[in-house]
Amino acid sequence: MTSPASPLQTAPNDFHKRPLVVMQSVSKMFSSGTVALSDMSLTVNSGEFVSLLGPSGCGKSTALRIIAGLGDVSAGSIDWPSSRINSRGLPEGDISFVFQEPTLMPWQTVFGNVHLPLKLRGISKSAARAEIMATLATVGLADFAEAYPRELSGGMKMRVSIARALVTKPKLLLMDEPFAALDEITRQKLNDDVLRLWKETGITVIFVTHSVFESAYLSNRIVVMKARPGRVHADFPLHTSLSRDARYRTSEEYRQACETVSTMLLEAMGGEEEH
Predict the structure, then answer these.
(1) Terminus of the chain with fewer CB atoms < 10 Å: N or C?
(2) Domains, the chain, ranges and CATH?
(3) How far apart are CA 46 and CA 49, in angstroms?
(4) Nearest CA to 225 among 28, 32, 93?
(5) Which 3-state string (H, E, C) describes 258-271?
(6) Mean pLDDT in each 10-residue stretch from start to end of the chain (275 residues)?
């Protein structure tokens, strides 16, 4: 589908970077016979912040897990044009995943939880200390390195999960509705934190959400998916002349962005209101 007509899309397209991951005509059928994805094609370029938006059951999380190598395709292919591929067909050390729940080990400190992916690579705590502490500092948790998950708020636990994902310096960060269970104030703060990290590191982000408001705030590109079976309905860049901050949330540009995204989502759902 072509980009929707909107002033937000009149700026020059700045997505002419090298492709990082390419989904080519991907379909996924589960053993139950449910078709989660059908002929889905998507190219994500280096440095983009792409939101996959759609109602529950449209295959957003399935697509994300397939990209992460956590599920096989029934048809089609996943290609990594700019990465070295390992024996599993995945880029070596280039992907990190943040799930809907923080999934922290309760018996480990914050430091220990962030050390886990480095430990799996054979890197000791002492050798990794500087990198872990620097990563904790980027998410505002350097002072909580020796705390345990039970001592943290929900937002802090999610920051630990993000730090654990970033400590390996991945090219691609996959986020599956990581803030859906948090209160609105915490969610907005973490949205700001993720945007800051994206800008500072240059990492590529694919972010799954069912929130129009969250996708319009975070993304420089939005992919709206149809449900049953999941496939791309609309794929368009989202430009703004403003910094994405508290001022942007009350701006006319943000209102227009939300309106554009809402229109595309309503079309994807066949004109029915989402409940």
Answers:
(1) C
(2) 1-10+19-94+172-265+268-272 (3.40.50.300), 103-169 (no CATH)
(3) 9
(4) 28
(5) HHHHHHHHHHHCCC
(6) 41 58 94 92 95 90 92 92 71 84 95 96 94 95 96 95 94 93 91 93 94 94 92 92 89 94 91 46
pLDDT computed for residue 86 by the predictor: 72
The 8-class DSSP code of residue 151 comes to G
Report the amino acid identity of residue 24: Q
3-state helix, strand, coil in the chain (%, to 5): 35, 25, 40
The CB-based long-range contact list for 7-14 (8 Å cut-off, 24+ gap) reads 7/256, 8/238, 8/239, 8/240, 8/253, 8/256, 8/257, 8/260, 9/236, 9/237, 9/238, 9/239, 10/239, 11/237, 11/239, 13/237, 14/237
- Position 271 scores a pLDDT of 58
Which pLDDT belongs to residue 105? Answer: 96
The continuous run of DSSP H or E covering 16 comes out as none
| Predicted local distance difference test score (pLDDT) of residue 92 | 67
Q: Which two tokens stand for residue 46?
A: 């280096």
- Integer Cα distance of 191 and 121 in angstroms: 30
- Record the tokens describing residue 119, joined without a space: 């430990």
Helix (H, G, I), strand (E, B) or coil at 102: coil
